[in-house]
Amino acid sequence: MPKVRVLVANRPRLMKDLVLATVADQPDIEVVGVTENEAEITELVERTRPDYLIIALDESEVRPGLSGFLLGRYPQMKILAVAPERNRSLFYWAFVDIRSHPVETSEQGILSLLRNRPELVAG
């Protein structure tokens, strides 16, 4: 069974060390990268392709700004945001909802769809 790949991008250092102590010795978890520098996170995610990114949660009810970008680009990845001083953690993931709708096979049907006017598409 493949190991769960984790990128740890926490600050402050104490939080990063606690997270690493929790996951580093687990036989089914592989730490693929560590950084305290937020500017390095996107490049590290691109290079290491982790299953999980563990980051700092600065404001307890506000999704970290970088998470939306990263989940849009890497929807298979999940993010755990941790705020130890408030004893709070939030889990973020992307959910792709694929839908379908019949389209009239005609010039009007195709153009209506392309112009984002689904009310004119056959249904």
Would you give an account of this structure?
A five-stranded mixed sheet has the order 2-1-3-4-5, with helices on both faces. It has 123 residues and is of the alpha/beta class. The termini are far apart. The radius of gyration is 20 Å and the shape is elongated. The mean pLDDT is 82. Helix content is 29%, strand content 24%. The protein has helices at residues 13-23, 41-48, 65-73, 107-114, and strands at residues 4-9, 29-34, 52-56, 78-83, 88-93. It has a single domain (4-93), classed as 3-Layer(aba) Sandwich (Rossmann fold), CATH 3.40.50.
- What CATH calls the topology is Rossmann fold
**CATH architecture designation:** 3-Layer(aba) Sandwich
Strand content: 15-25%
Main sheet, how many strands, which sense, barrel?
5 strands, mixed
N to C succession of SSEs: EHEHEHEEH
According to CATH, the homologous superfamily is Response regulator
Instruction: Tally the structural domains.
Output: 1
Q: Please state how the strands of the largest beta sheet are arranged side by side.
A: 2-1-3-4-5
Poorly predicted runs: none
Q: What's the mean pLDDT score?
A: 82
* DSSP helical segment count: 4
- Structural class based on helices, strands and sheet pairing: alpha/beta
CA radius of gyration is 20 Å
